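Translate structure to sequence.
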């Protein structure tokens, strides 16, 4: 089973002081993206007035993402146990384990190509509809599939997928030598993630242009673009 593990920013997360995770038996690490601080990112919200752009940092958010890993695990419990044993030392860390897959059936893009340019992680924020896994318009999903294919062929889109509702997810928090585990669903819908793309581009402006042209399934999506630590 494939999972995305979102690492949340903690007291040291934005400073990039968290040690990297290493794969163990039962875990295949397909991709890992350590993100630059949110001050280097941008959020784009869509409305009847068109795209509205807000630069970081996103200090008001309790759920800023500091890193993303794409893993293959025997089970969600295997992933939980892996995170329990993470070498965090005295640092605090919180992870969210999310099952991949678009509820509407849009195929994901498997990590395959090595990046030759700076990478950017694009996070699509959840809403009540995505958390409920409400049906999506088939025409919109078809448009998304076409754009994804174009991005892969152009060498821009490296990987991407939807995430299932947080009702199927788990959070693992490590602090003070203790581990706590909490099963979803999680209530703060505006802070949750419904899907992601990992792209390579020459600049943040190029990534923003791609995001603004993308045909989303949501009526009024909100998207966060974060540069990945390079190389």
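Result:
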């Amino acid at each position: 089973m494939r999972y995305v593990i979102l690492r949340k920013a903690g007291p040291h997360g934005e400073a990039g002081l968290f040690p990297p995770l290493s794969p163990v038996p039962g875990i295949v690490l397909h991709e890992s993206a350590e993100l630059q601080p949110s001050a280097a990112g941008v959020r784009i919200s869509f409305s009847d007035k068109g795209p509205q752009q807000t630069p970081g940092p996103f200090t008001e958010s309790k759920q800023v993402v500091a890193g993303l890993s794409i893993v293959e695990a025997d089970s969600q419990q295997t992933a939980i146990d892996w995170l329990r044993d993470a070498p965090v030392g005295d640092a605090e860390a919180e992870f969210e384990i999310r099952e991949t897959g678009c509820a509407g059936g849009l195929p994901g893009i498997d990590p395959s190509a090595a990046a030759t340019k700076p990478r950017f992680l694009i996070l699509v924020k959840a809403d009540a509809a995505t958390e409920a896994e409400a049906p999506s318009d088939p025409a919109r999903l078809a448009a998304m599939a076409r754009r994804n294919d174009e991005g892969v062929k152009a060498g821009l889109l490296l990987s991407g997928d939807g995430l299932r509702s947080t009702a199927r997810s788990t959070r693992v928090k490590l602090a003070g030598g203790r581990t706590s585990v909490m099963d979803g669903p999680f209530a703060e819908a505006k802070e949750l993630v419904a899907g992601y793309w990992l792209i390579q581009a020459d600049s943040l402006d190029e990534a923003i242009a791609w995001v603004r042209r993308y045909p989303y399934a949501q009526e009024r999506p909100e998207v966060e673009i974060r540069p990945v630590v390079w190389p």
